[in-house]
Amino acid sequence: MHPLSIRAVIDDFELAPIKRAIVFDPSDKEKGQLITPQIEDRSFSPYRKFTYTLPGAGTVTQFVSNRQINSRPDGPDDIFQQLQEVDLGLRRYPLSAAKVGGTLNAQFAVNYGMPYDFVVDVDSRAFSEACDPILRVLGRLTWATDKAVEAEGEGGTAQKPNELLALGYFEDMNINYHDDGESTLGPTIASLSLGSKAVKTLRMKYKYYYGLTKNTKNVLDPKADPVLEGCAGREWRLKLKQELTNGSIAEKDYKEEWKKRQKEWAGGRRLGDPPVCIITELHHGDMVVMNGEGVQKYYEHAVALEKGGGSKLRFALTARHVIKEKLGNKSMGQAWKGDFKLTPGQTYDGK
Ligand SMILES: O=C(O)CCC(=O)C(=O)O
Fold it and tell me: Do you know which InterPro entries this protein is assigned to (predicted)?
């Protein structure tokens, strides 16, 4: 198979922009739940940086790329081409929790470095077996991870990625709502998009949005309900929780009040999906960093390619920090796969 050039999968207009427009109008009342990012053009120039803050949970930072960055030697255009010229080992894996045995994951996947079991049990290859473009991607994502964490300004240093999952998407493929909140993972997750444009959306999980379990039958334990900004009935929930905490009502009153609210909301039936709070286009060369344990615990994200055959090929390369000490016995034997040392040419300086 001949590799597709970047020009074959994205049009001239997409190749050209220096500053991409934000994809929604924040004054649009219909989209009132959308979070407006903080936009910064200088600090990481030539990248444009979008930061979305999810109060009580963390941040989502997007480093928006452009033609100047993408066309540099060994940059995103070259990596896109080179990833198609080597045998990356991409294949579709059976979903571990599939209703019908043998159902395959939608995307093609390969994992490098520390083992990472998500909805599919993907084999891991050592970084020592990885080709140069994969290690250059790791270099770029290590840069993005560091910069996004530093920007939070709490003096924290990022847990460096030691795992990289490559996903290949063809026309119309998508990845449904999920989180990357496996207990073996550190709090920072960085992805690089290559090739066709995709749209990423993020929303609060049902149980935290409504304060109810998914079948709407049970009320969350108040200690496990953070009553996040943007959740349904927030003021009422905060007040009730406060009354419980300061002892002005008993637990049974708390439950009673919730029962009434459950009835009022939906007569005990499942409510609608929580509204999307972040929507953003992922273009060729863009990097997105989700930072904070709460982003995975309280929110879920999905990524979809354009429908209708417009999208020909997209790679999403995601790097995480797998905590060696938290791996089970089965995986421990493979932990050495996470060791790597990038050469100066594989290390990224943000240009
Ligand atoms: O396709 C993407 O950009 C992200 C993929 C993703 O959500 C994941 O690897 O968990």
Answer: AlkB-like, AlkB-like_sf, ALKBH2
Instruction: Report which residue type is found at 344.
Output: P
CATH class for domain 13-22+33-202+281-328?
Answer: mainly beta
The rounded Å distance from CA 24 to ligand 1 centre is: 22
**Closest to 291 (Cα-Cα) out of 168, 162, 149:** 149
- Per-residue confidence at 215, pLDDT binned at 50, 70, 90? confident
Q: Which of 126, 119, 125, 112 is nearest to 166 (CA)?
A: 112
- Write down the pTM of the prediction: 0.90
Report d(CA 25, CA 120) in Å as an integer: 37
**H helices present in 126-250, as ranges:** 132-151, 206-210, 234-245
Domain ranges of the chain: 13-22+33-202+281-328, 206-266
Return the higher-pLDDT residue of 320 and 15.
320
The helix/strand/coil state of 78 is helix
Q: Above pLDDT 70, what percent of the chain?
A: 83
CA distance 262 to 85: 56
Indicate the top mutation candidate among 110, 141, 165, 191 to test ligand 1's pocket, ranked by most ligand atoms within 8 A of CB: 191
Query: How sure is the predictor about 333, in pLDDT bands with cuts at 50, 70 and 90?
Result: low
Q: Distances in Å between the alpha carbon of 102 and those of 92, 118, 333?
A: 11, 16, 27
